[in-house]
Specification:
With 274 residues, the chain is of the alpha+beta class. It has a single domain, classed as DD-peptidase/beta-lactamase superfamily (Beta-lactamase, 3-Layer(aba) Sandwich), CATH 3.40.710.10. It is built from seven helices and eleven strands. Helix 1 runs parallel beside helix 3.
Length: 274
């Protein structure tokens, strides 16, 4: 039997990050975490990932469909989740026609969540809890306010999200693939914190790395890597080509430190586990 080689854990560099942080990686058989894994941190826009996962479950159950008409004229649930509806970032202004630009929109995610709540006949926070949080054992995570940026929870729970994104159990492989590959390829737009990209690719509630440079994942992450980061200092990504997931939480908001620390950690993890 081939022996699995020992891993020199790359997470040791997290101790040099500013503020208080917790981070963890996992692959198909192993997981490692550092920091206060049971401490609650703000997730900010990483909230969009679990909100999207709830909608993926609702699609699987037939409660909603990605092609439901919702949002601006001509837009669908798919447009809202992939920031391709043309909605402004934080209000109902329409800045572009659907599928012509990638405009990062908190409001779009909120409308998507409202659509699910209306179809399901329960509050979105209740559907999220029943469809995602409870099945994944995320007992310490709560949604306070917007489904676009209002979650708080510990690394232990974010690692449960990472595990689900790496090997889905809540939805089928087909639904998972549809949600984590690029929707509306080739749309230009601004990736918050990283500027304009001629191809600002997104899936349904998660960003797809593609060939974006600069980026918050590593230089060695595959183009199929997907995930999200938040202004609070939170992030999670899954690299399906490598079979690896990485997540981090911090009380130090996103800033210049993260522009180097996150890609560096990503490359260290991939090198150690590859």
């Amino acid at each position: 039997m081939q022996q699995q080689r020992a891993v020199i854990d790359p997470l040791r560099v997290v101790s040099s990050w500013p503020g208080t942080a917790a981070a963890g990686w996992r692959d198909a058989t192993r997981e490692s975490k550092v920091g206060q894994a049971d401490r609650a941190f703000r997730w900010a826009s990483v909230t969009k990932v679990i909100s999207a996962m709830a909608i993926w479950v609702a699609v699987e159950e037939g409660t909603v469909d990605f092609e439901d008409e919702v949002g601006p004229p001509g837009a669908t649930l798919r447009h809202l989740l992939s920031h391709a509806s043309g909605l402004a970032p934080d209000d109902d202004r329409i800045l572009a026609s659907p599928a012509t630009r990638r405009i990062y929109s908190n409001r779009g995610i909120e409308l998507a969540a409202d659509h699910l709540a209306q179809r399901a006949g329960i509050q979105f926070v209740s559907y999220l809890r029943e469809a995602v949080l409870e099945p994944l054992g995320m007992t310490a995570t709560v949604l306070k306010g917007s489904p676009a940026h209002g979650a708080e929870g510990p690394l232990d729970d974010l690692m449960a999200v990472a595990a689900e994104l790496l090997a889905p159990r809540l939805v089928s492989a087909d639904t998972h693939l549809s949600a984590t590959k690029v929707s509306f390829e080739g749309l230009p737009g601004i990736l918050p914190g990283f500027g304009f990209h001629a191809r600002n690719d997104w899936g349904l509630g998660v960003e797809v790395r593609s060939n974006k440079t600069p980026h918050w994942t590593g230089r060695t992450n595959s183009t199929s890597t997907f995930g999200h980061f938040g202004r609070s200092g939170a992030f999670v990504w899954v690299d399906p080509a490598a079979g690896v997931a990485l997540a981090g939480l911090s009380d130090q908001g996103f800033g210049p430190w993260a522009l180097s620390a996150w890609p560096d950690l990503s490359d260290r993890v991939l090198a150690a586990l590859g």
